[in-house]
Amino acid sequence: MIVYLNGQFLPLEDAKISVLDRGFIYGDGVYELVPVYHRQPFRMPQHLARLQHSLDGIRLANPHTAAEWAALIGELVARQPFAHQGVYLQVTRGVAKRDHAFPQDVAQTVFMMSNPLATPSAEQVASGVAVVTAEDNRWRRCDLKTISLVGNVLMRQLAADAGAVETVMFRDGFLTEASASNVLVVIGGRIVAPPKDNLILPGITYDAALEFARDAGLALEVRPVPRAEALAADEMWLSSSTKEVVAVTTVDGRPFAGGAPGPVFRKMHALFQQKKPQPS
Ligand SMILES: Cc1ncc(COP(=O)(O)O)c(C=O)c1O
Predict the structure, then answer these.
(1) What mean pLDDT do residues 212-218 have?
(2) Mean pLDDT of the chain
């Protein structure tokens, strides 16, 4: 597998960084995951804009212009033997003697790899997936896509321990998101999405879903969602660059929303399949 590290494309086994990298020592960096269908990135400008937001949030200069990123991503995609990819890119504050304060004049570490895009199985689309729920105990800058993911890792493990795919979180009685996905619900035929504030990642797939819904004339509303309303909703969906949209049909071990994906989900899933990049 060919990856990219600090200006070079090279085999994964040859990509090496220092143990003093601040990504390793502090989790001091940010990342993105850009889905690629038929070798065409989906919503790359939006992912690069969010990367800039994350970098600004941790006060780290962007090592590349959008055009440079696009060229690097294009080259990485071209070097993989598979057509549907998840391009992972990460920027850290570089290598320096361990000290919390920012180092001066240190180059960022830039790493990229691309894996086969693992979209939901036909079975998951048809039957939905299981989630567990938990109180959101992460920090209050969940809008930044930082590599410091131990809070999300612990949340995801709760789901893994229960044989579920995700952990849906609530903070102070309101729905936030899941460990690596956004969460949308459908109430009385209307899609209801929590606002993109500092408590959730501004999902590119969340935005795509709301845009597709608006264009198709589906009713939607962006507002805080109380826990009781979320857990009594007619439908619940997860959205992410790898999951696209998938319906939740089991919550905390009990059937949810009749135990089958609902009609609004089926519409949204069909819209998503139409709108994502097609073979060129
Ligand atoms: C915590 C979290 N929320 C939401 C998402 C969904 O974001 P996107 O649709 O941009 O992939 C992700 C993506 O990995 C995530 O890690």
Answers:
(1) 98
(2) 98
Instruction: List the alpha helices (DSSP H) in the chain.
Output: 22-26, 44-57, 66-78, 122-127, 150-161, 204-215, 227-231, 263-275
Number of domains in the chain: 2
- Told to judge if 145 belongs to the known catalytic residues of this protein, a careful annotator would answer yes
Look at residue 280 and tell me whether its pLDDT is greater than 90.
Answer: no
Mean pLDDT confidence for 239-249? 98
User: Do 218 and 265 fall within a single domain?
Assistant: yes
- 45 Cβ partners below 8 Å, 6+ apart? 66
Is the beta carbon of 54 within 6 A of some atom in ligand 1? Answer: no
Model confidence pTM above 0.85: yes
Same domain, yes or no: 50 and 181: no
Annotated catalytic residue within 16, 97, 145, 267: 145
Domain limits at 30?
2-116
